[in-house]
Amino acid sequence: MADAPAPQDPFEVFRRLWGPLGVPVPGLAMPTLDPQEVEKRIAELKAVEGWLAMNLNMLRMAIQGLEMQKAALQAMRAGVDAGSDAAAAQQPNPMFWPWSAMQQAMGAAMAPEAKDRHSDEENKS
After folding, report:
1. What is the dihedral sign for C-alpha 47, 52, 54, 55?
2. 3 state SS of 104
3. What is residue 92's predicted lDDT score, i.e. its pLDDT?
4. Which of 38-47, 51-60, 84-93 has the lowest mean pLDDT?
5. For the chain, which has fewer Cβ within 10 Å, the N-terminal or C-terminal residue?
6. Model confidence band, residue 40 (pLDDT cutoffs 50, 70, 90)
7. How far apart are CA 69 and CA 76, in angstroms?
8. Are 99 and 93 in contact (CB under 8 A)?
9. What is the pLDDT of residues 59-98, one digit of tens each?
10. CA-to-CA distance for 17 and 55, rounded, in angstroms?
11. Average pLDDT of 35-49?
12. Which H or E run contains 1?
């Protein structure tokens, strides 16, 4: 033990202990002591934060757009339902139909002829 060199890094023991695993353990990871490495890590995390914030805003806008589309579809469906209910409830007066008016006029015009024929047949008998 006397010939073993003194480690320069105080965390060298932990690195050798966890090194063969190859999988970093989140709770046991030792923080770096290099300020440049810390600044680099902060910059990376801020970039990730910005990316996540942008994606969150895009997701919120997509949700709002779908909610507006849903509201528009419901309003259109309600309008169609109300229109069909009103159309079913309001039936036009048959007296105003042109065909009905023509049939009544023809019936009125034919009525005197029918009476004349009926009276002619009675006179012949």
Report:
1. positive
2. helix
3. 61
4. 84-93
5. N
6. very high
7. 11
8. no
9. 999 999 999 999 999 999 988 888 777 666 666 665 566 6
10. 39
11. 94
12. none
Query: Under 8 Å CB-to-CB from 122, ≥6 apart: which residues?
Result: none
In whole angstroms, how far apart are CA 2 and each of 12, 16, 37, 45, 84? 18, 20, 34, 44, 98
Q: Could you tell me if residue 22 is left (phi over 0), alpha (psi between -120 and 50 degrees) or otherwise beta?
A: left
Gap between the Cα atoms of 100 and 108, Å rounded: 12
The radius of gyration computed from the CA coordinates of the chain, to the nearest angstrom, equals 47
Residue in this structure with the two tokens 């528009």, named with its chain if needed: 72
Task: Report the distance separating Cα 87 and Cα 91, nearest Å.
Answer: 7
Written as six digits, the tokens of 105 are 């006029």
Between 103 and 58, residue with greater pLDDT? 58
